[in-house]
Amino acid sequence: MGSSKLIKNTLFLSLVQVVNYVFPLITIPYVSRIIGPEGYGIFNYSTAFIGYFILLIAYGFDLTGTRKIAKANGDKNVINNVVSEVLSARILLFLFSIIIFVIALQFFKPIQKDLWTVSILFIGCLGTIISPQYIFQGLQELSVFAKLNFVKGILNTVLIFTLIKKSDDYIFLAVLNTLFIILINVFLFIYGIWKFKLSVRLISINKSLKIIFNERLIFFSTVVISLYTSTNTIVLGFFADNKEIGYYTTGQSFLSIVNSIVAMPLSTAIFPFVGKAFSISKENGINTIKKIMPIVFYLTLGASICLLIFAPIAIKLFYGHKFDKSIPALQIISFLPFIIGMSNIFGIQLMLNMGLDKLFFKTTFIASIFGVILNIFMSKMWGYIGTAWNCLIIESFVTLYMYFSLTKKNIYPFDFNYFKFSSIKKMILLSLQKK
Q1: Which stretches are transmembrane (predicted)?
Q2: How would you class 213 by CB atoms within 10 Å of its CB: exposed for 0-12, middle for 13-18, buried for 19 or more?
């Protein structure tokens, strides 16, 4: 039943991501030709900046909450307690975020290029407070995401063609983004409470602060990961104009389409599945990883090779000739789906499910410090191309660092017997036959 549910949830999540990006692929050729690289630069920079606030409010609960719910084995009292704790802690973190955001508006010059856009996107953080992803993920019930995102995709597409008519209309991208984040999460939260018959309450500030303190390692790990991912865009903003930011973030955005369709559904579906395997025994969990590894390996490697080959065609087709300078940036980072897929197995699936939170934090922290320093140098010297190379170097570094950290603990995630196509086919067929 477990393997069958894993495949089902992976397929549902892949469908969610396909829906999330198929509709934008319809609108991208239209929008990109109207707002141009500069408009994209402003919108994507503002989005990257607000990402830090989303990170703070989310606080890694999509990992820790999922882990707790997956291990609760359906115990309603435990699940109710987890949901109540996460909601209360996130409300507190949002209030703190408001203070930081107001200060940033006054003193952080790069976002002052368009205060309206960044402010509208910040309002979308309200959706993060009640985001119930960890509930559905922990209980491995993900089909509703596919259906809801399909409706969202249709509405968003219609509204984009209706609202965006001139270069300054990129602000409507921020409005729609915020609107749908809030509405979808409100619906999912209410639906989750009803479907799983949950009872949610707010806990005291003291208890919320204690939870925030106890979960700090995972949060700090997500922060340092962000330091060598989204910080690339923030740092580039100090050395490049909006057009260069637009070229780099266009490549990143297209990479995200591929990564979100292939790697993200695998990661999201695998995490609770592997967590249950580890709850049986360490050996069972590691063996489960070894069986899953070939599927992740082949899918992400294939996606990366296709991205490298078809990058010029994809950019010209979807964004137009104004974005030709995005092509080299996309080709440089084309192997990130494969590299990130591997680091996800080593870090998220193995380290976190085995309770090696400190090791996970250590590896990501070292990578982040190295990444920020290198990024400042490379962005200053070579602009957005330097930023792209930095992204590839750091992601490769953290993946290798995680792998060798695991081997030092005698944890080996690869078993090449499972890499034979006959073995993969047999495993998938057996999984589909189980009910």
Answers
A1: 12-30, 42-61, 91-109, 115-136, 170-196, 217-240, 252-274, 295-315, 327-347, 359-378, 384-404
A2: exposed
